[in-house]
Amino acid sequence: MNAATSRRTLQLYEAVGYQATVDFADQHALVALLFRALTDALADAERYLQARQYLEKAGAVSKAQGILEGLRGTLDFARGETLARDLDAVYGYCIRTLLRAHAENDAGKLREVRTLLGRLESAWQVIPAQLAAAAQ
To answer: Domains plus CATH for the chain?
Structure first.
């Protein structure tokens, strides 16, 4: 198998694996997938910025902003009240900061958003263990 065929096979495998994960994931797992995709998009944006690949950077920033809008869409303001409002404010701040990072080619702003959202992602990952412990 040549290198191009190997890459294509790997891409297909990854796409099928990702789709299978989405198809069978619960809501918590879907938000975790969004956080993972967001982290990847932000890392890509910074890597593209450092390589001066501005078109690719723009695509990665746009993807990150779209994921943030998707995360905003998961917020339940009726049940979550204060927490939902606070998360909405954080997501909005991150979207605006990404816009500035893109316009100014500012890697520091990209890292700021990655750090902030990394903390949220870490907190999100411990929720299942906390729920399981509370159920015992």
So the answer is: 26-135 (1.20.120.340)
